[in-house]
Amino acid sequence: MALFPASALRPGVRKREVFGWAMYDFANSGYTTVVITAVFAAYFVGGIAKGAPWAAFAWTAALSISYAIVMLTMPAIGAWADLRGAKKRVLVIATTGCVLATAALALTPRFAGASGGIALAMALVIVSNAFYSYGESLTGAFLPELATPEGMGKVSGWGWSFGYVGGMLTLGICLAYVLWSQSKGLPASHFVPVTMLITAAIYGAAACATFVLLPERAQPKTTGGELGAWQQLRATYRQARAYRDFMWLLVCTVCYQGGVAVAITLAAIYAEQVIGFVASETMVLIFVLNVAAAIGAFSFGYIQDRIGHKVSLAVTLVAWIAVCVIAAVVTTKGGFWWAAAIAGLAMGSSQSAGRAMTGYLAPPRQLAEFFGLWTFATRLASIIGPLSFGAITWATGGNQRIAILSTAVLFVGGLLLLLPIDMRRGREAALRSS
Predict the structure, then answer these.
(1) All domains of the chain, ordered by start, with CATH?
(2) Rounded to a whole number, what is the distance in angstroms from the first to the last CA of the chain?
(3) 106, 123, 127, 99: which is closest to 31 by C-alpha?
(4) Please, what is the Cα angle at 55 between 384 and 196, to 5 degrees?
(5) Which among 99, 100, 136, 118 is positioned nearest to 55, based on CA atoms?
(6) 9 bridge partner residues
(7) Which pLDDT tens digit goes with each residue over 304-362?
(8) CA distances for 180 relative to 30, 176, 190, angstroms
(9) Which of 129, 187, 396, 416 could lock onto 66 through a cystine, CB 3.0 to 4.6 A?
(10) For residues 250 and 376, what is the distance between their CA atoms, to the nearest angstrom?
């Protein structure tokens, strides 16, 4: 059996187009790995906010504001892109915005400890993360144009696993520079800005491959502009009953992705403040987590197409519950490594499965719009999960172990909300609307 079978692709789709599409996952993964997870998150709490009791809450608040902005705007942007056949055009704008804002984060250490520095860092995180979210949604909307329904899991897994390779490359280069800087006795205020510039450069350069190789297949449907986009979105909400399985998926996504968001945004903070990792150890930890995530996303894509999207996602949610319990009870770095390894495998497979399920249940004529609704759900989850973690930590006097154990409730809820989804019925509803 071929590792990358052409049978997974729609007629007329060339593998170079799929490579171009996967390169965007490669490009943007460095942002989440370095900025949101491994480097800037911990530096914001310990360096810019000087370890204040409210620092973790301020970090999650900045992310939550960006997610709220995306929730309110992305569905309409997606509907507009569908109507104008402009997914790629908007993707270029979103990428440019994220790259510039990420590069600007290099300025924040100059203002560390000052109220203005905290405000500047939060503002740039809000802007960069909002543009990142727009890009993630728009690139996902290309998936059903490239893959057959039977190959959706494989192709999604290809992209997501390649994305983790990009995250590892970016983090690896940053880690090498951090270790060199530390060997010279240079402080975090010196090497953190350089890692932000490295991340921005790789993001922008790799995304260019997407813009060159990935064609825009959608054709403009109307000249109604913004009014037409809002009318289309209102029509979709009125027809929600016809897409009940997709709507159940959105509710399920809000629940379990809240837990995934905790792992992405707070793993470095938990590792350093609770387990006792130092900055270089944390970066190695996140690097290995990315290796496990790449393996999980790639291999599970094939399993997903064989056993079904729903069962596959359920398996990953059980794994996430185990991660929360292990992380809450271990006291050694070695024990925490076990939780991180399982989290990596579960992260890649669960996120790839969710994207593939969305593509499978989305009407072919409204891909950007429905992926915009999926983004609404994932960003709402990214508010609920990290803010809950931050609030529980604050309420318990800084006890992050209780907070991470409480996160297991989100994955249990995701399992229960997954039960009513009928994939065959949902696919038939999507095709009837086209």
Answers:
(1) 14-215+233-432 (1.20.1250.20)
(2) 33
(3) 99
(4) 90
(5) 118
(6) 147
(7) 878 888 898 999 999 999 999 999 999 888 888 988 889 888 887 888 888 889 888 98
(8) 20, 6, 11
(9) 129
(10) 9
